[in-house]
Every structure is written in structure tokens, then in C-alpha cells.
Amino acid sequence: MNEIIILHLLLVFMIIGAFVTVEIKNMLSAVISIGAVGFALSMMFLFLGAPDIAITQVIVEILSLILLIRATVNVDNVAIEEKGESVFSNRTALIFVGIILVFAWIAFHSLPSFGEPLMRVSRFYLIHGLREVGATNFVTSVILDFRAYDTYGEAMVLFVSISGAFAILRRWKREQDKDFLRIDREH
Amino acid sequence: MTLYFLNFVLLIIGLYALVFKRHIVKKILGVAIMEYAVNLFLILLGFRKSGVPPILMKDMDMATFIRTAVDPLPQALVLTSIVIGLGTLALMVAMAIRLYERYGTFDMDEIKRLRG
Amino acid sequence: MSVLLPLFTTIPVFSAILMLLVGKFDKKYFPRIWSILTSLSLLFILAAIWGKGTIIHEMGGWKPPFGVVLVKDNLSQLMLLVVNVVTFLTVIYSYSYMRKYEDYLRFFTLFLFMLAGMNGVVLTGDLFNLFVFLEIASIASYALVGYGIDAEELEASFKYLILGALASIFILFGIGMIYSVTGSVNMADVARFIIDNGLADNKAILMATGLFILGFGLKAGLVPFHAWLPDAHSSAPAPISVMLSGVLIKVLGIYSLMRIFYSMIGMTSVVSNILLVMGSISMLVGAFMGFGQDDMKRMFAFSSISQMGYIAVGIGIGTPLAIIGALFHLLNHAVFKSLLFLSSGAIQTSTGTRNLSELGGLRKSMPVTSGASVIGALSIAGVPPFNGFWSKLIIIVAAFSAGYIWLGAILVLTAFLTLAYYLRFQKNVIFGEPTPNMKDVREAPFLMLMPIVIFAVLCLLGGIFNGWLISNIIAPAQSVIMNQMAYISSVLGI
Amino acid sequence: MKGKKQSGMTFIVKTITNLIIGFMMVFGAYVVLYGHITPGGGFPGGVMIALAYILITLAYGRKVVESMVSGVAGSVGDDIGALAIIILGFIGLWIGGTFLFNFLPKGTPFELFSAGHIIIYNLAIMLKVGMSLYIVFLALAILQRVVVTRNENEEN
Question: Is the ipTM reported for this complex over the cut 0.85?
């Protein structure tokens, strides 16, 4: 039973961390607090019986921290003060969020209760997984044999986003904005 | 059930950051928070009370393993979704850097004004 | 025959990666020719599997609910036709258009991946797999919209990226809820579970429905979520605006909505009313905003929103005639919107500007492009001999026969509004007096003209042979999508 | 000393990097190779090995790492990894009639070569993921040089 309590504590910690990330002025501390949220998330995955995902979440968390710090530190790391009212006034936003939360509360009641998943399809993976695939890590057998097409798609998603990032970062139009930012042609 | 609800609150915080914050990096952080919330939701769905990770150890016998193992399918979905989140993040960081290079500021409303 | 199905997603990816490896040596000609060959080969494969009824391909040899399954029924066949024909002509067009952006290699890699993503979405019978390939197509289109790395293009593609990521998160949340309630991610298995256990009014399914409408509505650019569409379409390079407007918002938005609500969850009155409201508002907003635009591509982007409103209304009404009208309009819109965006790209390369105020009297200096864009403008406005007239007529007749009087009135009003602002477009861009800076304008290069002329001919043929088109291509697709039980039994084999 | 372009970080960071690199590489390889027996798999292992190289880049600066694995070699490795995945899928299509079919013998559980083509997939994914994330970091690190000089221009 204390497992559930730990999960609740970690989730509350993540909510506080997320709120700090959103409201804090300094960008670097915002990135660090989202790192804290990410690591709490990977601990939750451990308690929820998903070691594969916990390892992946820790590793991806480190990499996204490096990327995010890369985007914030070198430039100006103090957020711009909020000048004036944003698009919707906060009151309408709160009402809108209130309606969604109430509807979500009702909808979550009709989900199967926490801890008793239906497992209609995954019971087949557990029963036949060892004999048909031979892997003892059933998550890997689902990823690389039962639903290998998803992993094929995922590998291509990473490939596309990397070549997309290269397309955006390529050295093509950088000379043109010489008047805007004095960029020193270093090499 | 309360875990699902708290997770939904986390999603709403990410949505708030994404819609109302004007700093580009804050929007990226908002998307990252929402990714965390969705991945956590999928794993919460697959959890089994006093469940065992779906990895067979040497000394485990199959019957108890099948009765207590946690659902492996959402974990496969979340692994793919984490990779997609990383890919989107890499693209967003690349665009944020180039946007800063072009406009000299990270404030989206400022950029909209400069854009004319 | 079912061996050919996975080729639709693997051949573009395989040739894109080969192109990257070989492209290190020849950056100029090899990528462009290689991409044309790839999209041509996909057309041949489509011809090979055309009209063979429902073909199933079980990935990795696993039975449907346990493995991922590819399903080609008549609706996917129609979508494959739209996607691959528009892509083939756009690749030929961008052979000479992309000379402005020197980096061909990176462009055609992303282009082929977007094609693979769209083919993957159309063919898959698995909900999570649809999400993965939707991500491939979307991420490729985010990078392609910002390909010119100008100030506006970066801002437009960043806004598109943020809203796209938001939509994908909501879709994934919806998939999680569907999985939790029904225990499976395969569309046919979910449909059978919902019918057997009578879960149609389950609160969680209702919330998943709302999340799907939010997510796929944003990908389709329907009104409450259309903020990204005008900027993204107008600042993208012309071939990418064609792909975005012509196929991407249809495949990722409308096709996914149809597949999920007709084949999986089942069309409830709540969903059809929401689609009707969103569609009619989209029509009006798109039409009214289309008037005030000076930039040609922004005007075409707003008219895309209003035409997507037509298709959403057609799906929302739900009667067989309305679905035929919606699918026929989807096919027609892909043809004439691609024609308009291609001609706007040709006009921009020749005259250097796309603002209607600066253009005028192009009929003398650019006869072929202006002739084709007149055909495009007439067919989108719904003038009789062209294809736009027939599909709009069917949707209007379906609306009136289904008893939606006020909806029919909005449909007719939008048709006249569209006619009005496209006449304005023709008057001063094509037939007006040549403005001073239009003197030394030459016609666009041949490889850009050929796709424009082909699309214009398709507009004309679509209008004349609409009877044949409906009975051979549209009606089978409509009968398949309406018949949920046939879909379930053909996929699950019970 | 201030003016000289100082490549990499302080001495302490460099020595710690020398110590950690070995463990990271070995643990990454373990996670990849035993992905089908213990938790882990192609993806986390690949990112771990990429992080080892990124740590070298942060500690020693870009020039040192470029000599080890250059940008071009990285992108070629990335393409080869992706090609390997597709070719494995096509072999499955050729032998088993369906794409991504597991055509290799299943072997005995708990052994290293026990789950058919899963181990080859893990290696291909490791190569692809590791190389692509490494070259993305290189691209972002290169850009850092340009923006940093901008700040220095404003100071003097």
C-alpha cells in the first residue's frame, strides 16, 4: 500500500516542479527544475514496474537537459518580464480549465480502476512471448517482434527530426542577416 | 484514480505554459511537461497492483509471472513516445536558436510585432 | 498481393537514405531524379494493387489484435491515389522550383519521409501506428515549412510545430484512454469490443472522442484550431504549400477522423453535430478572411480552410450522399488547390512577388500559367464545367435532403463568397492592365509548367467524367467506410 | 590567458571524464547487447554511448572529438544504421512473407543469442541513435561558436 503513497508523493513533487518551471523568471533555473521533474518521473516508472522506461527516461532526460541548456545559457538567460495581459484574460482561462478538470474527473471514473488493467492483448504476449520470440524481457519482445513496425516508425521519426534539425541549422542564409546581428566570420 | 487526476493536472500546467507563456523556451518546456504527463498516463494505465516488472528472472515460474507481471504493451508505446518527444525537442531547440539569431529576442509577441 | 502493401512506407524511406549516402558525391542532379523515380515507382505499385478489394498485411506474421496490421480497403485506395498523384507531380515541379534553395539533398529526404508518413497513416489498421506515422509526416512538414530560414518562415514553422506537438499529445492521451477501456490498440479489435460491450456512451470513450476531435481537428485546420494554417501555408516553399494544402491536412486530419469515427468508435450524433458546427464556421471564416488578403498564398490558405469546412460538413451529415460529396470534394480540392499553389509558385519565381496589388495583366506575359490558374479559380469557385461544381452540388443537395436547411444556406452562401473573391483574384492578376513592374516577365520553366497543365486537365476531366469518377472510385470508398461490420470482419477474419 | 580561446573545461572535469568514459561505454554496450534478457535495449544503450562522446566534446572541446569520430563519419554511420533496419525488414519480407518477420532461430532463453533478429535490431538501433544524436550535438556545438563570438563583439 505504501507503494501508492510514494507514487502520490512523487506526482505531487512533479506538479510543484512543473509549476516552478513555468513561473520562474530565470531560464536556467527553469531548465534545471524541469530536469528535477524528469528524474522524479523516471523514479515513478521504477515504482510502476517499468525498468526499461526508467533507464530510457533518465538517459533522454540528460540529453534534453544538455539541449535545453544549450539553447538558453549562451544567449540571455533571464526571461522577458510579462508586459501586459496575455491573449485571454486569466479568469476565462481558469473557468475553461475548471470545466475540463470536472469532465476529466467524471471520465476517469469510468476507466478500469488503477491497478487492474484489462490486459486483453498483452496476456497473449506474456503467455506466448517466451516460446514464440525467445526473449525473456517481454517489453523488448513486444517492441522488436510483436509490434516491430512501431519501432521501425520510431527509428524513422528520429531520423526525420535529426535531418529536419540539420535543415534548419544549415549555414545557408546566415550571411544575409549581417546587419541585424554582427556575427564574426570566425573561420 | 487520484493518480490519473493529478497526472491530468500536470498536463494542464504544461498546456498553460504552452499557451500563455511568451518566452520561446518556456513554450518548449511546456511541451516537455505535457510529454511527461502523457507518458506517465500510459504507464499508469498498465500498472498492476503489487505487480512485477515484465522481465522473467531465472528462478521465476511462468504461472505466477503471468498472474503478476505488469502490462508490457503501454511500456512499448511509451518507449516510442519518449523518442518522438526527444526528436520534437531537438527540432524545437534548433528553431529556437535560429529564431533568436534572426530576431534577437525570445519573446513571441515581440517577434510577431517585428514580423509586421 | 499483400506483399506489396509495406512497400508504400519502406520504398520512400529506403530511397531517401540511399540518396543521402550517394548524395555526398553528386548534390545537384541525383537527388532530384532519384525522387522522381521513387514517386513514379509508388504509382506503379498503386496500379498493381488497385481495385483488388480489401488486402490485409500482418506485420511480422502476427494475427491482427496482437501485431500491427496494414489494411488497404477502397477508402485507403482513394487516399493513396490522391497522395501519390499529387506527390509525383509536385516532385516534378520542384525539380526546377527548388533551384532557389540550393540544398536539394536535405529537401528531398524530408519530402520522401513526409510521403512515407502519409502512406503509413493511410494504410495502417492500428491506432498507435497511425500516431507514429502521423508524427513522421508532421515532423517532416515542420522542417519543410521553415526550409527557407527567413524570419517569417521560421516564426510560422515554430508556431506550426508548437500547435502540432500539442495536437499529437492530445491524440496520444486519447489513444491511452481507448487502450485502457478496450484493452487493445488495433482499430478493428477496439470497434468489436465497443460494439460487443455497448461502450458507446462510456464516459472515457466520450473523452477520448473529444481529444481526437481536438487533435485531428488541429491537424485538419478546422476553425477553432486554424491559427497555424495561413502562416504555415503562405511562408512555405510552393511545393510544400501544395503538399500541406493538397494532401497533408486531408490525410492527417479528415481521413483519420473518418477512419476513427466511422470504422472504430462509430459515428454518434454528438460527433456529427460537432463536425457540422466546426465545418460551417470554418467555411464562413475561411471565405470572409479570404477577401481581405493581399498575399496570394494567404488567400489560397484561407480558401483551403473554407473548403475543408465543406468536407467536414459532408462527413458530419453522415448520409451516403453526403459522404460521396465529401470524398469527391476531397479529391477535387486536392487537384485544384495544388494547381493554384503551383501557379502561385510559378508567378512568384517569374515576377518575384505574390502580392495581388503589385501583380496585373499576366495573361500576355505568362499565358500558360494564367490560363491554368483561371481554370483552377473557376473550378474552386464551383463553375459548372469543372469538377468543383459537382462535388459542391452533391454536398448542398445532401444537406437539404438531410433536412439541414440553415446548413444548406451557409453552403450556398460560401459558394458565392468563394466565387466572388476568386473573380477578384482573376480580374486584377490575370486580366487587368499590366502593372509597371510586369514588363520583362518571362513564362515559368517547362518542368514547372507541365504539372500545372496536367492539374488543369485533371480539373476539366474531373468535371466532365464525374459520373465515371463517382461510380468507380468514390462510391466503393463510401460503401466501405459506412459499413463498420464489414471492416471488422475483414480485418479480424471472423 | 583570458584572450586565448580556451578549449574545453577545467582540469578537474577532464580527469573525471577520463575516468567515467570507460564505464559509460561498457555499460552502454551491456545495455544494448543484453537488451532482450535484462532491461534496456538498442535505444538507451545507443544514447549512452553518444553521451560518452558528448561528454568528451564538453570536456575537451570539439576539435579533439572531431579527430575521433568526424561529422561525416557520424552521418554515414547514421544512414548505415537506418539501412540495416530496413534491409533486415526486407529479408524478413523475403523469407517469411511479411515485413519485419523474425527469421532467425529462437535459441534458448537467458542465452545471449536467444531471440532471433532482436539482437541485430538492437545493434542497428544503437548505431543509428548513437550516431544521429552525436552529430546533432556537434551541429549545435558548432553554432555555439558563432553566437559566443557575437557576445564578445558587443563587450569590446
Answer: yes
Mean pLDDT, residues A157-175 taken together: 84
A76: left (phi over 0), alpha (psi -120 to 50) or beta: beta
Q: Is the dihedral of CA D82, D83, D84, D88 positive or negative?
A: positive
- The domain total for chain A is 2
Cβ neighbors of C110 (< 8 A, separation 6 or more) are A160, A163, A164, A167, C140, C143, C144, C147
Residue D2 belongs to some domain of the structure: no
Q: Residues of A with CB below 8 A from B107's CB?
A: 80
Cα distance between residue C162 and residue B27, in whole Å: 8
In the predicted structure, residue B61 carries a pLDDT above the cut 90: no
Domain span at residue D52 reads 11-155
d(CA D118, CA D33): 10
* Final residue of a structural domain among A28, A51, A79: A79
Give yes or no: residues A121 and A70 share one domain.
no
Quick one: A1 and A72 in the same domain? yes
- Please report whether residue A134 resides in a domain: yes
Q: Is residue A153 part of a domain?
A: yes
| pTM: predicted TM-score of the whole model, two decimal places | 0.93
Residues of chain D found within 8 Å of residue C61, distances taken between Cβ atoms: 96-98, 101-102
Print the domain residue range for A134: 117-175
Are A70 and A40 in contact by the 8 Å Cβ rule? The answer is no
Subunit contact A121:B73, Cβ cutoff 8 A: yes
A 56-115 residues inside an 8 A Cβ radius of B: 56-57, 60, 63-64, 67-68, 70-72, 75-76, 79-80, 82, 86-88, 93, 97, 100-101, 104-105, 108-109, 111, 113-115
The predicted structure's pLDDT at residue A87: 57
Number of structural domains (chain D) is 1
Q: Is the pLDDT of residue D34 over 70?
A: yes
DSSP of A131-147: HHT--SBHHHHIIIIIT
Q: How many A-D residue pairs are in contact by the CB < 8 A criterion?
A: 144
A55 lies in some domain: yes
The CA–CA distances, whole Å, from C345 to C35, C96, C193, C339, C443 equal 20, 11, 49, 10, 12
Q: In the CATH scheme, what architecture does the domain B2-115 have?
A: Orthogonal Bundle (1.10)
